[in-house]
């Protein structure tokens, strides 16, 4: 038998495993407590385990890669920073010295032996790579925030509709926190707080630093590739790697950094997470930026430019007002006609919690309902279970883009310092020609995003 025949046979075996392993491994055990990582994947042969390519292996990317390694074999790592790619390749918890290292993500996508792609790049690269991965037949894990613009929300949603056989998970892991965030969502959805009137989403403010000096990019970093669709500018250390999120050119500051988590939970809880829903009025008049602005754009290019002090009021057709703010504690406050709770990564508090208003109303069946019928388990466990069994992941693209609509609209209103109106069904900013120009961005030639 030729090597080519062996490869085809191995891929067929592995892909069949991905469709049937969970059901087989779960036989005779309680599905609600069945762990995908411990039972279905860890003890499989190399020919059966999914093969994974990790695109973007910096701090968060390496952390996610280590998580994926519990479910499959990482056979490729990629980063425009060669040093990061080599480090991930040789990590005994990621590439184990055997993975191929690339600096061009397209090399990962063109490999037929790769089943799953993990995309953990700077935000402005997410959608382009994710859509091309779907086109290449890969299942996709992509870190939050999934998108850079309102237009990208529509592009990635359309792609997921077209490539519905591929599983997609967004890295909003708070959705898998059953003791705090899921408890809060369940309490709101069951009406235990009464009618929700106000929500405060505390996400802190961006740092205000600069001016910074330009310099030559470090050896091994392809700065042009890192910039991608964004305007070509001289290298500044504080524009790159983790610090990119404090520049609107590549991200949305805290609006999309923490907003992708907390606005997501709030939107989910009040049922505004479906297509055609969302805020109708966004008031950004109470927002400040660390540098001077004109018509929504920073007048300097050497300092962080995302908002550091803001209270942006999002009004929904239901009358609910969601205050996305840098002030106060990081977390979410739900205020209803019967009671209020506060939930963060560290705690969930309030009279309804102290008195256990949800006693007998937050069991395994309730958790399963939040998990779209799947057993409650870890975030990536849910991803690989859906690859095996089918179905939407807990953090699916369709609900996430509704969250990102609110996040991006909050940022646009803050940049302009005024109230804007949004038609959630048409997905258009209305009555403000300048604000409407922020729905999409010009992209550099050679870095366009596929429209499918």
Explain what you see.
The protein has 452 residues and is of the alpha/beta class. The chain has 2 domains: 172 residues, NAD(P)-binding Rossmann-like Domain (Rossmann fold); 239 residues, Dihydrodipicolinate Reductase, domain 2 (2-Layer Sandwich), CATH 3.30.360. The protein is built from 16 helices and 18 strands. Strands 7, 8, 9, 12, 13, 14, 15, 16, 17 and 18 form a 10-stranded mixed beta sheet that branches. A 6-stranded parallel beta sheet has the order 3-2-1-4-5-6, sandwiched between helices. Strand 1, helix 3 and strand 2 form a beta-alpha-beta unit. Helix 7 packs antiparallel against helix 15. The longest helix has 24 residues. The chain is globular. The N terminus is likely disordered.
